[in-house]
C-alpha cells in the first residue's frame, strides 16, 4: 500500500476502537490506527509536519501526539503537551514549527522544537471554535462563538515578548464582524495573504473574503444552519455542509454582482444528499474529483463531484469530529522512522527569563543533521556548523542584574532618608511652635476674664 498518493485522516467522538485513523480512499480500508489518547474535539486533529499526528482531548487540558508509524502516543516517551485549559481547536503551521491552541476565548502560541509558550492573543469575547493557518504559515485565522473572524500575524505575536495582548494594542490584522451568530468552520485557500477566506455560521450565511484587502466579496444566504465549508483545488466550486444533512455546491466561475446573494431553486438543487444528520467536516481531494464529508451520523462518505454520487462509506462508531484528505506521508509505511522535527514538552509559563534551551531554526538537508541531547550539529565534507544551547552565561547575567537592582534600591532609600530628614525636623519644630502660640493667647484670655469676674463680685459685696 506504499503506492497510495492520498489518504484520509479521521477521528470520531466515541473512542471505542481508536482515537484517530488513516484510511485508503481507494478501497476504504484502514491503514493505521492510533490509540492510547483522548477523544478528539472538533477542529482539533492535525498533522505535525510529516512525522507526528496531534489531537486535543475535549475533557482534559492536554494534547496527544503520535509518530505516524506508531500506535503508541509519545506521552510514553516523556513528552507532555499540557495546555492552560481544555483546547477547543488546534492548528499547526505548515513547516511544523509553531502550534496555536484555542482555550476558551484565548489563543496560545507554542514553539514545537523548544516547547516555549510564546504569546497569548486575546480579542474574542466568547469561545473560539476553529483556527486555520495560511499555506505560507505567516498568518492564521480564528473564528469564535461571538461571530468574529480574526486574522492574526504570527510574526507580530511571537515578537511581542510573549506578553498577553492588551486592549487597544497589537490588534489583529483584520477583524471581520459580519456574522451575527457563532462561526462553525473556516477555509483558507492557497496564496498566503493573497488567498480567499470563507466562513460559515449559524446565521445561515457563507461569506467570502479577500485576505489581502480585508474586503467582503460575497455573502451567500442558505435556508439552514451551516456547519462546514471547503473548496476544490481550482477554487471554482464551494461546498457547504448544513444542519439538514445536505451538502450544497455553489460555483464561483460566474459570481453574482450583488454582495448578498440568495440561492435560486436550481442552485439549491445542486446538493449531495446521503447523510441523515448534520455535516461536521468537508474536504476535497487534490485532483478535484472526490469530496469527503463527515457527519454526526457516524459516517464518512466519499463523493464523486461531477455526478454527486456516493462512491464509498467509511463507518465509525461515533459522531465524526474530524476528517480530511492529505498527501500520504512515506513514514507511515516504514518500520524505522527518524523524525525530522524535534518535539518537546510544553512549558507551563510564558516567562522569557525562565531557564531552558534556546531553539534556533535552521533548515538543512535531513540526512546531515545529528543530535545528542541538547547539542545539534551539521556534518558536511566542506563545512562544519555547531549550535549549542547553554544557560550558564544567562544565569550569570541574571545574578548581576539582581545584585545591581538591590544596590540601586538601597542607594535610593538612603538618599531619600537623608533628603527628607531636615524637612521632617523643621516640620516638627514648626508644629510645636504653632501649638504653643495657639495655646498662649487662649490662656491669657481666660485669665483676663477670670480677673474681671472677681472684680465685679468684689464691688457687689462692698456695695
TrEMBL record:
One annotated GO biological process: rRNA processing
One Gene Ontology CC term in the entry: nuclear pre-replicative complex
Q: Which regions are flagged for Basic residues bias?
A: 451-463
Q: Which UniProt keywords apply?
A: Repeat, WD repeat
WD repeat extents: 121-154, 272-313
- Bias (Polar residues) occurs at 425-441
Where is region (Disordered) located?
425-463
Tell me the protein's name: WD repeat-containing protein 18
Give the source species. Cryptotermes secundus
Amino acid at each position: 500500500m506504499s503506492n497510495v498518493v492520498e489518504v484520509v485522516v479521521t477521528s470520531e467522538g466515541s473512542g471505542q476502537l481508536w482515537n484517530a485513523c488513516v484510511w485508503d480512499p481507494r478501497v476504504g480500508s484502514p491503514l493505521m490506527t492510533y490509540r492510547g489518547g483522548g477523544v478528539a474535539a472538533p477542529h482539533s486533529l492535525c498533522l505535525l509536519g510529516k512525522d507526528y499526528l496531534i489531537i486535543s482531548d475535549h475533557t482534559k487540558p492536554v494534547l496527544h501526539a503520535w509518530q505516524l508509524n506508531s500506535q503508541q502516543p509519545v506521552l510514553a516517551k516523556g513528552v507532555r503537551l499540557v495546555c492552560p485549559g481544555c483546547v477547543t481547536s488546534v492548528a499547526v503551521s505548515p513547516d511544523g514549527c509553531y502550534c496555536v491552541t484555542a482555550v476558551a476565548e484565548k489563543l496560545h502560541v507554542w514553539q514545537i522544537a523548544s516547547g516555549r509558550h510564546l504569546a497569548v492573543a486575546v480579542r474574542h469575547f466568547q469561545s473560539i471554535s476553529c483556527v486555520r493557518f495560511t499555506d505560507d504559515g505567516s498568518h492564521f485565522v480564528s473564528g469564535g462563538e461571538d461571530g468574529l473572524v480574526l486574522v492574526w500575524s504570527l510574526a507580530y505575536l511571537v515578537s511581542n515578548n510573549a506578553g498577553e495582548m492588551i486592549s487597544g494594542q497589537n490588534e489583529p490584522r483584520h477583524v471581520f464582524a459580519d456574522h451575527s451568530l457563532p462561526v462553525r468552520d473556516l477555509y483558507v485557500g492557497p496564496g498566503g495573504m493573497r488567498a480567499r477566506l470563507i466562513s460559515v455560521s449559524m446565521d445561515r450565511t457563507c461569506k467570502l473574503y479577500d485576505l489581502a484587502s480585508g474586503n467582503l466579496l460575497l455573502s451567500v444566504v442558505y435556508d439552514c444552519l451551516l456547519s462546514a465549508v471547503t473548496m476544490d483545488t481550482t477554487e471554482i466550486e464551494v461546498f457547504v455542509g448544513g444542519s439538514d444533512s445536505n451538502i450544497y455546491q455553489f460555483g464561483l466561475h460566474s459570481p453574482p454582482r450583488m454582495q448578498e446573494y440568495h440561492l435560486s431553486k436550481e442552485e439549491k438543487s445542486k446538493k449531495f444528499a446521503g447523510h441523515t444528520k448534520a455535516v461536521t467536516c468537508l474536504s476535497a481531494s487534490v485532483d478535484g474529483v472526490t469530496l469527503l464529508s463527515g457527519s454526526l451520523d457516524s459516517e464518512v462518505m466519499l463523493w464523486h463531484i461531477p455526478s454527486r454520487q456516493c462512491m464509498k462509506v467509511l463507518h465509525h462508531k461515533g459522531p465524526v469530529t474530524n476528517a480530511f484528505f492529505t498527501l500520504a506521508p512515506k513514514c507511515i509505511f516504514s518500520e524505522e522512522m527518524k523524525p525530522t522535527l524535534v518535539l518537546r514538552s510544553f512549558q507551563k509559563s510564558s516567562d522569557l527569563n525562565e531557564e531552558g534551551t534556546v531553539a534556533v531554526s535552521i533548515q538543512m538537508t535531513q540526512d546531515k543533521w545529528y543530535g545528542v541531547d541538547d547539542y545539534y550539529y551539521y556534518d558536511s565534507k566542506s563545512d562544519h556548523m555547531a549550535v549549542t544551547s547553554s544557560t550558564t552565561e544567562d544565569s550569570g547575567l541574571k545574578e548581576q542584574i539582581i545584585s545591581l537592582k538591590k544596590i540601586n534600591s538601597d542607594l535610593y532609600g538612603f538618599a531619600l532618608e537623608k533628603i527628607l530628614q531636615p524637612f521632617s525636623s523643621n516640620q516638627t519644630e514648626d508644629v510645636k511652635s504653632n501649638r504653643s502660640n495657639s495655646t498662649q493667647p487662649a490662656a491669657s484670655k481666660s485669665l483676663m476674664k477670670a480677673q474681671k469676674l472677681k472684680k465685679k463680685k468684689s464691688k457687689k459685696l462692698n456695695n
